[in-house]
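Standup notes
- DV: blocked on the single-chain target, sequence here:
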Amino acid sequence: MSSEKTSIRDVPELEELLSEPAEATVRALTELEGDIVVLGVAGKMGPTLARVAKRASETANVERRVIGVSRFSTPGLERQLTEWGIETVRCDLLDRKSLAELPEAANVVHMAGMKFGSTGQESLTWAMNSYLPGLVSERYCKSRIAVFSTGNVYGLTPVSQGGSCEGDELNPAGEYAMSCLGRERIFEHFSRTSNIPMTILRLNYATELRYGVLVDIAHRVHAGEVVPLAMGYLNAIWQGDACDMSLQSLLHASVPPLVVNIAGPELLSVRKIAEEFAEKLGKSVRFERVEATDALLSNAERAYRLFGRPHVSAEQLTSWIADWVSRRGATLAKPTHFEERSGRF
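- DV (later): unblocked, structure below
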């Protein structure tokens, strides 16, 4: 198991571990019929998810096309996906003609969206997050769709509550979170009116060694920068576990959509995590402000009942990340802005 490793040597080994499918994912993709299209595959999590789908299908001896769709602005990504056996299609998803020409598939994973840079580009944010779902629902009205959303739709909740549950009242702060709620509502509308089975996956937060909330904290400590505490608590989940749960969710797609939180089980203290990194990295740590009594937190017990618990713990993640950062391992240079409390990204 990947969780038995004490150190991850380099990016190829990291990619291998991230995309190692869980046994439950292999079983799910044995039962699942048809090809899989991943819309927005070029994001931070998309390549891993597509490769998990391909590896699980191969392990299950299921012949299946896994097709990644994106504008592919990142150099080399198309070639990498092709080497992993994933087909690629270039597409501007907001272009109706290009969208209409995409391959048919019984299963769609919708990962396309906009978060960072949304402040100042609010109209594009709404187009990507709330208008595009209608286009995708029309294009893939005969498919099963897993929709990536975010725990930001809940808004800040009391830390003492232990994390928002799927049935809680939604209170999105800022245009990004509001547009994500728009995404959910549009998909739900088409699920109900066109009888499209769907799952809505409220992710909070996927992490590996090159990006994520824990990586952000580790880099701040390593660089001697101040660690902000206003958003004093968080969830984090190994990206491989998040991909496993997301793919398994396709078997549970329903009308109306099944909503599932995907998050780590631990309620993590930013202060304690920073202090752990300081100890592991041989650094001192400085803080600013104090912890608020509320935060963006999710309760993922529904996901654990459906898909099992994560295989990689937060403790294991912090050990891997500290080792990686100490060796100056590769980074995606995409900070999460976990400290943002007003919803401006």
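- Follow-up: The chain has a mean pLDDT of 94.
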